[in-house]
Automatic annotation (TrEMBL):
GO terms for cellular component: plasma membrane. Residues 33-98 form the Potassium channel domain. It comes from Marinobacter vulgaris. This is Ion transporter. Keywords: Membrane, Transmembrane, Transmembrane helix. PANTHER family: POTASSIUM CHANNEL PROTEIN 2-RELATED-RELATED (PTHR43833), POTASSIUM CHANNEL PROTEIN YUGO-RELATED (PTHR43833:SF9). It comes from the Bacteria. One of its GO terms (biological process) is potassium ion transport. It is a multi-pass membrane protein. The chain crosses the membrane at residues 30-48, 81-103. It holds the Pfam family Ion_trans_2. It is found in: Cell membrane.
Amino acid sequence: MQRNRRPLNPEHQLSHLPMAGLIQSRIKRLFVILTGLLAAQILIIWAAEDLNLFESTWMTMTTLVTVGYGDFAPKTYVGRISTILMMFVGAITLLTLIVSDYIEYRFYRRERILTGRWIYAMKDHIVIINTPQTGGEQYFSRLASQMRSVPGYETIPIMILTRHFPGGLPPELKDCGLVHFHGTGSDPLALKAVHAGSARHIIILAADEADPSSDSLTFDIAHRLSESNLGQKITAECVRDENRDRFTAMGVRTVIRPVRTYPEIMVRSVVAPGSEKVLEDLFNYQNDHPHRYEIDLDDLTWADIVSALIRHGIGTALAYIDENNEVVCHPPTDQEVEGKGLIVLVKSSETPNVNVVEEALDRYREFIKKWHDLQDQAAEEEDIAAKTAGQ
């Protein structure tokens, strides 16, 4: 029974150390040995044979890779013996070990990437901490596609810090170019592994968008990042509105409600801080809300309509409904609008009725007519003055 049998590879004795580093250091060591053997062989051939330095190097390299073109061959006993040793020690043994270790390293790296334990050398990337309880794949896929449609973010790397994918990311997320690290934002080592300090943006998703207690976990993660002066990079989800002030006082740049159906809101809050307030307000009926007015539109430009509603304190025009019942958002300002309805952002406490809107538009028509009349009158007076000066 072989009790003192030595292990095949040294990392089997050093399992407590990072295997990638062990394999890489062994490959480097083997390369150093091989380089030394090649240099010695070249010098021996150069000294023992009737060959110059280039020819000695050429013959040594063709011997190393077992090609042996035959254009040069050792003729002395010293040269032949050194070539035999170099063949067996260098070509057969060392090269085999190097190739074996390289393949082992590739398999090891692939397994670590698959399970989310590979540390990427990233900077200026986006770190997303936590995963939605349901529909995480669809959420991340849509978020990535929306994020990369923003100018300047087309190729930005996205890293997910989560424990939801222990067996690897789904294929659709890999196809989007997303990578992940298996861990939690409460772990300082995990935050270091995803290079949070070098990230352009850090997104902290609520662990459970329906559980107010998940704010405690979000607060813990945000606090750890704020201690490293990363608060201005953080966009954090907050379930309870009462906790928003706590995140803001900590230095968190943007605080947003969890909205899983529309990851576009998260994208806007990241790339355009403050826009999330506008988008959240559209979903809140307490202050402002979009209201639809059935009204004929035929002789005003979009700029006229927007100005008329604002001047009369009605609200902000968001879109109009054309004759085909299609909603047209943000039309050209100088184009005359023809439609049968308006969508206006109005105060929920004082929602004007359709008669007030029609009256505002009529008044603006009269204002425009008077302004045009004044313009025409001024033009006529200029013409008369020009003719008089010419006479």
